[in-house]
Amino acid sequence: MRRILAIVEGLSKAGALLSVLAMSAIVLLILVEIFVRAVFDSSTQVASEYSGYLMVALCLLGFAYTFHEKAFIRIGLLLPRLSKAWNRRFEIVAGLFGLAITGYALTYAVSMTYESWALGMQADTMAETPFWIPQLAVPLGLALLCLQLAAFVADRLLKRDDS
């Protein structure tokens, strides 16, 4: 089981790396846009559109790693007051609840991306980007978060109350 948890952690780190690459691409796009405007008094016509797509990818692909590193916003009013046993039980319930919500969102994200591909939907911009390409980040990021949430619950189930 520990091997599976390590694989999920590796996938979360890969998502974080893709998130970093998306942020780097946004910075590069903006710098190119600034240069083209300053030097050629023109525009790339795609910097704003692609920066938006990459921002969605940046967020969603980083969610699993953020959760793993306990960097999501947490409200610690109840858990510090509970015993370790009740704390673990509460985390299991919360993890299962989060997994259910994320899984539900994942099913719709997959459906949305598939429909965009099947219908040949594309952006009404100069680039005419097929929507399914940037939309892939949504189900991918949610799938990574589902895996991380499942690993979280499994880890809490494996822990004993005295540890």
TrEMBL record:
Regions crossing the membrane: 16-38, 50-68, 89-111, 131-154
Protein name: TRAP transporter small permease
Topology of the protein relative to the lipid bilayer: Multi-pass membrane protein
Cell inner membrane in keyword set: yes
One Gene Ontology cellular component: plasma membrane
Pfam families hit by this protein: DctQ (PF04290)
Keywords in alphabetical order: Cell inner membrane, Cell membrane, Membrane, Transmembrane, Transmembrane helix, Transport
GO terms (BP aspect): C4-dicarboxylate transport
Domain Tripartite ATP-independent periplasmic transporters DctQ component: 26-157
Location of the protein in the cell: Cell inner membrane
Record bears the keyword Transmembrane helix: yes
Chief site of localization: membrane
UniProt similarity note: Belongs to the TRAP transporter small permease family.
Gene Ontology MF terms in the entry: transmembrane transporter activity
Organism per entry: Oceanidesulfovibrio marinus
InterPro entries: DctQ (IPR055348), TRAP_DctQ (IPR007387)
